[in-house]
């Protein structure tokens, strides 16, 4: 006689500090999420409830206190190896109608909800985890960089970042300037002001692993009234830099169920072509070629043209969009990974990208590579 157990467990996966496990319980597919952080668990539950009023999210069946943390049981959406996420639509060789259709639905959903819920709010009422908390005393900027110094690129540019302001940066033939200490002070000051922030109801961390295919939203501890420019900068930076290059390089376990990601890392990894110093002119020369796969280019282009630009035209007509995005982009560059922990070549490219982001000539329409022409061919 065969005995069928009422519960069947799948492989446990770690995502940052959380554990995820697919479970079949009495024939019902569930996804269990375990987190040790009680505050994040409460924010996840509240965020899910907020988001469910406007976006498609899996049902939250129950949440329990368990030894050492909290357990949340969600409806498990269909998926599998290299299936079920926006990531999987990006991990193919050529753009196709399914990605275009997906981006149409994604941007339409966001545009409608953002425009319906947008208002200028006191920063105290904004979801603070990804930006304000990281810039605050004791946050990631302090943890990573306060009182610390490191070389721009060990073995390539053996100059401490604290002395960057004494050099001119020649990046791909254009002159830039980056004062490391002043940049950190600027970010801390920007996210310490009481000036109202334009917010709307969003998930807050719109990465290609937090967006399901067919369209749905995962991960809710940052869901709520989020900064709209912060939402835009998050998606654009993740789609163009983090998701295809840095995260699979430095956190490969997150893609255990989506191994096709690694096949496409070379197509999304910048190529460092020059790194040297001219001491007679105090000039650091950096030459690099950005890389962005065809599918990621389609996603970024659609997001910019169908969401960022229409929302900006409605909410901030005549405003300089680059100045709205700039501090959030700089925080994404500095506040996700500690630059000192990265390989010298990667650190150098990111410092170049930071210098370009804070430059008066910063142009998001070319910076995020939404147009094919500005991006050198792989």
Structural overview:
- With 378 residues, the chain is α+β, with helices and mostly antiparallel strands.
- The chain has 2 domains: 69 residues, Phosphorylase Kinase, domain 1; 282 residues, no CATH class.
- The strands form 5 sheets. Strands 1, 2, 3, 4, 5 and 6 form a 6-stranded antiparallel beta sheet that branches. Strands 11-10-17-16 form a 4-stranded mixed beta sheet, covered by helices on one side.
- The protein is globular and about 75 Å long.
- The protein starts with 6 loop residues before the first strand and ends in an 11-residue tail after the last helix.
Can you summarize this structure?
The protein is an alpha+beta fold and 378 residues long. It has helices spanning 38-52, 86-90, 97-117, 132-135, 140-145, 180-190, 228-250, 260-263, 265-268, 294-315, 321-335, 344-358, 364-367; strands at residues 7-9, 13-15, 18-25, 28-35, 60-66, 69-75, 119-121, 151-153, 157-160, 168-171, 174-176, 197-202, 211-212, 216-217, 224-227, 271-278, 283-289.
Characteristics of this structure?
single chain; 378 residues; alpha+beta; Phosphorylase Kinase, domain 1; 2 domains; six-stranded antiparallel sheet; four-stranded mixed sheet; 22% strand; disordered C terminus
